[in-house]
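Let us work through a complete example step by step.
Step 1: write down the sequence.
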Amino acid sequence: MLIAFIGGSQPTLKKSKIIWINIVLLTVVNTGVFYLYIDNFAMRATITSVNIAIVFYSCIAKIPKNLNLKTDGEKILQFAVCIIVLLTPASAIFYWFEQSFFVYMSTLMFTQAIAVTGLIGAFLTLLMSDLIEDHYHKSVIDPLTGVYNRRFFEEKVLKVTGFTQKSQHGIIMVDIDDFKDINDTFGHAVGDEVLVKFAKIVSKIVRDSDIVTRFGGEEFVILQASASITETQKLAERLCDEVSKCSIETQAGNLTITASFGVSSLSAPDQLESSLKMADDAMYGAKEGG
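Step 2: predict the structure and record it as tokens.
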């Protein structure tokens, strides 16, 4: 069992032979050692403490591999397990010094109480942090396209421009051309497919640090942090070219779409409204110009 933990594999208990082999080996070794030291309580207490510590240490090694410690709840859980590992041998250590069964049991009960309380608290924190993170994620993600919504965009702009006031940031306003005709001709279900595919095309092309947002309907906005107006214009041109080349598979057949783009720059939070208007005006200018 310990080898399966440390190895980083995730087999099920029913299918994995190595888990059962380790369980048998662990049971045989512990039983044999306990039999050899049947009259040595200190040695048996030490063996028990070491075994428990190894199991918890295996958990510490496993948690980062599975969770990557992304949230505060996950970090608290790992910290709690670390504390338990440190407390586990305490009862055996006290017994070696005092040679008192009462001291051993008192220390054991005390450390177990701390371990249980710590684990319950850590798991509750992990659960609550996951629930909060999931709720926040749902509140800032557009459910149809999977990109961010307007709320997240406005929050991100305030953070980006607030921390990097001397930098210039790019804004791209995008609108799918003749989208109303798609809905009227093929239905809203096909229109939704076009929106989803369009969002995927854009998301694949932009940088990881760029924020793709659905502002509403067929209108999208992209925030390019720390980008010059020239860099933003180049990105808009590339997006325009890639979108026009793509054939979108829908239930009504393959459709080809185009989109209009408008570009502006932003360097301070109070410029957001005016920058969006500039990008919006440029986008409609492009749409009218064909």
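Step 3: interpret the result. The chain has two domains: 37-140, 148-289.
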